[in-house]
Amino acid sequence: MSKSNLLIELYSNLSTTGALTFSSKALVNKMISQADLTDSKLIVEMGGGDGSITQGIFNRMRPDAELLVFEINPSFCEAMKKQFPQENIRIINDSAGNLDKYLDGRKVDFIFSSLPFSFLSKEVTDEILSQSKNALSQGGAFIQICYSYLLKKLFQKYFGKVQASFTIKNLPPAFVMVCQ
Asked: What molecular function terms (GO) are annotated for this protein (predicted)?
């Protein structure tokens, strides 16, 4: 799927994508730099979109690590499956609220998310954040891109420690929340 077709898909599904454009390289780098992936064995991405964050994770993860990418948009999933044919990357066309069904009891080192929590119902948000907290290994982190600093309070309900950083090198400028 071409970049222009992906943008059309993005705009026609704003209620589930929650974004006006895909994440910039600067934002992706800022997000992924919050995690040391050198010893990570299992990584999760929530909201694969156009694969820009997926590519950033793949470029930094160990060759023997596994990456599970959740994306509810079938068009984005199909495009990502073509973009990432590697056996250690699994593109999952399902809600991140079903995370536990794909872990087989394993713990996750890092969860990278670009999910639009401002647009999700309280029930879906609770399911995703509760499962994320329970899925993290000791020392793991849930790392979220968001466009409102007010979401920090939401993440503090689930995680004991939430740190926020900001980048203007994205349209719109964005926060990266690191939740542990």
From this structure: methyltransferase activity; RNA binding
